């Protein structure tokens, strides 16, 4: 079964940082999910064809025609941005530099 040692290995691989309480909650949740999957292994699926797509209709691209509309004035757009620099929207970094 998925135990604390396996969770620690997964946590290091995923570079997760969590408190002891969060770790306990995550471990419990993962054990529940894996337990449920184990229950599914008990279902007799002999003679049942495999299903690659549950909702085949959901896989169709939902496209719409492009519509040309008036653009938001640059000054108004930048006025509503939380932070800006040199006429551009400043966003927080999404990646950290490796130590």
What does this structure look like?
The protein has a domain at 17-43. 38% of the residues lie in helices and 4% in strands. Strand 1 and strand 2 form a beta hairpin. The protein contains 3 helices and 2 strands. The protein starts with a helix and ends in a 10-residue tail after the last strand.
The rounded Rg comes to 24 Å
List low-confidence stretches.
none
- Main sheet: strand order: 1-2
Average of the residue pLDDT scores: 86
N-end to C-end Cα span = 34 Å
Order of helices and strands: HHHEE
From the helix content, strand content and strand pairing, which structural class follows? mainly alpha
Fraction in helix: 25-40%
**Beta-strand content bin:** under 5%
Overall 3D geometry? flat
Largest sheet: 2 strands, antiparallel
**Tally of separate helices:** 3
How many beta strands in the DSSP annotation?
Answer: 2
Question: Which keywords apply here?
Answer:
about 100 residues; mainly alpha; two-stranded antiparallel ribbon; 3 helices; 2 strands
In short:
The protein has 99 residues and is mainly alpha-helical.
Task: Annotate the secondary structure layout.
Layout: H1 4-14, H2 20-40, H3 74-79, E1 84-85, E2 88-89
Antiparallel strand pairs: 1-2
């Amino acid at each position: 079964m998925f135990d604390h040692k396996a969770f620690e290995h997964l946590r290091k691989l995923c570079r997760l940082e969590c408190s002891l309480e969060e770790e306990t909650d995550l471990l419990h949740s993962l054990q529940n999910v894996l337990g449920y999957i184990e229950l599914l292994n008990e279902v007799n699926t002999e003679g049942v064809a495999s299903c690659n797509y549950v909702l085949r209709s959901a896989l169709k691209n939902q496209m719409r025609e492009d519509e040309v509309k008036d653009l938001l004035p640059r000054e108004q757009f930048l006025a509503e941005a939380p932070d800006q620099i040199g006429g551009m929207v400043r966003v927080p970094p999404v990646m950290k530099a490796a130590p």
